[in-house]
Batch of 2 targets.
Target 1
Amino acid sequence: MRLPVWLLSLLALVLQEAGPASLPKERRRGEERGHGESHAVAQPHAGSYLGSLDDYGEVIDLSNYEELADYGDQLAEVKETSLVPPTRISPTQSTVAPRTPLSNPAMTKPTLPGPLGSPTSLDLPTCLVCVCLGSSVYCDDIDLQNIPPLPRMTTYLYARFNRISRIRTADFQGLTKLKRIDLSSNFISSIDNDALHLLPALQDLILPENQLVALPMLPSGIKFLDVRLNRLRSSGIQPEAFRALEKLQFLYLADNLLDSIPWPLPLSLRSLHLQNNMIETLPRDAFCDPGEHRHIRRQLEDIRLDGNPINLSLFPSAYFCLPRLPVGRFS
Ligand SMILES: *[C@@H]1O[C@H](CO)[C@@H](O)[C@H](O)[C@H]1NC(C)=O
């Protein structure tokens, strides 16, 4: 069942009243779509789904109410961004009218008056289209084609199962609190190179099941990067892209088209998933510094190279510093 947008917004208000006992709908949605399974791999980090539960204390902080006021500044910007097909916005239309292409100018006049003032045309604030709970914004599965304008204090953004195809430089500009971006299962094929790397608080970048062939410059505080199930090629990873990411612990690049191991890997790394790629060979210094034989990389306990056309027995000198051998074919 799909709930109309106005109902979701109402629900958000009710949830805020109800306090921490209620769960955001996104957890249920994630499980229904069978996406939880792949995230189970991310357990050491407690994954994004579990994470959202942990974050709940923070989320429910009602002292963030002034965020609504922030919207005053942003209303003008909303005009430039198409949020959802207008057929979804009016509860009466959404059940009756067939889907109309976004470009149809005749349909850009929803009838719902905005709560923040005059009835507007398509420029509904994001928190009517999405569910805003404290500093979290939930926009799952509402046919978004772009990143919507976000409240300035947004900390967690969930916009999974949409039709977003590109991330632009302006999309996240000035969002200094943003810690997690989860855009799983969209159609993202490009991210402007400077769209993310200046976000000072960003820790989790979650982009599985998209169509990326390349990664943009990454922010230096990132801890968790999940780009599984894309079309990443080694040429789409900038040289030494991960070297300076001294907080990076989880790097999930499984199910892409990589033909080499990214190098160098930061010492902070705990988990490197490269299964189901096209890696055929392993340089001696892929994980360990050949000139530093006493050095042990204690953190890096979880390397997956299964599903690659490589015989790991052929590279015995590549593993001396690892606490555990990589998972993969050794015969
Ligand atoms: C993998 O390498 C080992 C060690 O050289 C060798 O004994 C084994 O036959 C190789 N396996 C394949 C399938 O080539």
Target 2
Amino acid sequence: MLGPISLLYCLVALTFTDESVKEKEPIYIGKTALIIMDMQESFMFDGNAYIKGAENLVDAINDIRKYFSHLFDVVIFTQEQHPMLHVSFYPTYHCMRPGDIVELNYTLDGRLCRQHPNVPKWTIPDEHTVECDLEKGTHILVQQELYEPHNIERVLSGKYSSKIVSRLTTDCCNDVIVVRGQYHHLDSASAFYEKLNNVPTTLQSELKQRNIDTLFLVGIAIDLGIIQTVQYAISQLNYEVYVVHDATVPYKRERLPMCEFTIPKMGAHLICMNDLYNIRPKKNVKEEKDKADKCGKCGKCPEGDTDKAAKDAKDAKESKDAKDAKESKDAKDAKESKDAKGSKGAKGAKDEL
Ligand SMILES: *[C@@H]1O[C@H](CO)[C@@H](O)[C@H](O)[C@H]1NC(C)=O
């Protein structure tokens, strides 16, 4: 069912840990996002940029949603939407082939230098490019790998389709889609930014507004996209990161051992689907979801219910407040003089976050 190499890793991991998985102390996680990377039709069996084993991920990811939905506060899909003459496509250049690498110079503000030794005619629209004075040396040199055209924007069927595979379980009301790769002149790998860190995607703001502190990464591809996302999430943003190995595929199989070595070195947990049984949410995500579902589709409460729910909540809070106020008054009084001193510093620290 799974790609042979991923399967091998997780089988080996299991032979060593099988007994202890059940014995192990459960791992408690905080507010969590499941990030499903680039599960798009171009990468599937009929797609123009087929990645071996990609189609097997659909069942794996659906299983994760089915059996472990209590772990995730939000599910986020990344979706590449490349324009036709994208900088990462080999036909954008003359005489290039998939797998070739071209060197590109960018200005510090992220525009592409038009001069290129290998291409007689540059086909990327002018608004993203600029004539550079390369003698000055104030440019960023990027090694751009070239691919078969894939994930073309607004193409929703056929081998160039950027559509998210329809067999994947989705929850249209609550799932989030983060689009990337929509600039002609910039490629993207990390889910957080287009190549050159100064152009962010919407991912970080989606995570931040939900107070997410833990990420689970699955999808395409562990060596191209996922590994860059892990690196940035940990080193720049301090997330706790889990990569579910047997719910990913490599773009290039020969890079898999490098990923298996590097991802844990970066501080992420490289786990297998089976390990999810050992992970528990700190709070009950399912309870909160059920509560939200009672408010109807898409979290909007029906008119009558809103008032009732609000009233119940208010009543409950009022009686609790009254009780709390009594109980804590003495303690509070005693604390107040002390807090007055410390609170200014504490507030400052909070604001910085
Ligand atoms: C990029 O710029 C450097 C100088 O900064 C230059 O030596 C090199 O040839 C340029 N490469 C391309 C592909 O334009």
